[in-house]
Amino acid sequence: MDNKNILDTNKNYWDNTADDWFGVTALPKYGVQFVTEDEIQLFGNVSGKKMLEIGCGSGHSLKYHGDNDAAELWGIDMSTMQIENADKYLAECGYTPKLINAPMEVECGIPKDYFDFVYSIYAIGWTTDLQETFNRIASYLKKDGVFIFSWKHPLHHCVVVEENKLIFEKEYFNENWFTYQLDGFDITLCNRKISTYINALAKAGFVIEQMIEQTDSETMTAVGNLDSRSIKAKMLPLSFVIKAKKF
Ligand SMILES: C[S@@+](CC[C@H](N)C(=O)[O-])C[C@H]1O[C@@H](n2cnc3c(N)ncnc32)[C@H](O)[C@@H]1O
What is the CATH code of the structural domain delimited by 3-246? Predict the structure, then answer.
């Protein structure tokens, strides 16, 4: 499958399911059963800062920064329905964001050397071209600007829970694209290694300041009859977050 087909498949999924994801994957959450921004404070004070979200979804993470006095809210998302939902939601909340309906991989008129923060909450992994996407994000940031993103941890994809034990089911090294059905629609994704993200960041001109792999304390201290995701989350991170600086 070529990149255009992958984008078309995934856009179709997001356009058909946008309402089901309204506010689901948004700051202060970085991921499911994961430490939150309230706890780890990667952004710090965003007052007066220019913010761009990659894969902004329904706009709830942009609202989080608006509520913390960010000066400008920008979002890009390839799903027309997600952009419509974000536009409506943020207008209802009193914000006037600049929202762009386009894939993150392509030139779409976002200003260069402009933003203090570019960030992405559970969207970067959808890119069909990680290096191109990181190069573009670097170009949007001012010097010393910060890029923060969260995504599904690659080990989460490789390991299953059977009889309360973790079993390695898939190769960590396999980055091939695969298609499966979710909610009746096809999705096409690949599972990139952590080193793939780190090497692409370095090549795009970023210095990594912090990487977080931390299940939330509620899950870590839970006892008794746990569901299989909680059993897994106690043993490995289901998500990861990277904070990097453009130099
Ligand atoms: C889990 S949602 C992100 C939700 C968002 N953090 C929020 O606060 O609502 C992932 C988003 O990535 C978008 N997406 C998927 N592939 C994309 C691509 N190649 N370029 C831009 N956006 C993409 C989807 O349309 C979806 O809205």
Answer: 3.40.50.150
